[in-house]
Amino acid sequence: MDSSPASKTINPQTVENGDPSAITRYEQALAELEQIVARLETGEQSLEQSLKDYERGVELERQCQRVLDEAERRVAAINEPDADEAGRDERSS
């Protein structure tokens, strides 16, 4: 595995905490994944290199998906009505 920034595992917890470097690593991972897909689509690589690229692509896809899942949870939490406010509204009715 290479030592490029995208090769580092993206921790969804850092995304949850608003760590901008986690977002940068996500974008780098996505860019690397797009490059891998382009190479695989050409069909010009050896079988061994294609398998290595595929394995790396799956790893990157999983990392990106974890970050997207965490972002989705954050959005859902932001959009949820505050439980305390809901309780007050019911009591004031």
UniProtKB/TrEMBL annotation:
The keyword rRNA-binding does not apply. GO terms for molecular function: exodeoxyribonuclease VII activity. It is found in: Cytoplasm. Residues 1-16 have a biased composition (Polar residues). Keywords: Coiled coil, Cytoplasm, Exonuclease, Hydrolase, Nuclease. InterPro entries: Exonuc_VII_S, Exonuc_VII_ssu_sf. Residues 1-21 are annotated as: Disordered. One of its GO terms (biological process) is DNA catabolic process. Its main location: cytoplasm. NCBIfam families: PRK00977.1-3, PRK00977.1-4, xseB. Heterooligomer composed of large and small subunits. This is Exodeoxyribonuclease 7 small subunit. The gene is xseB.
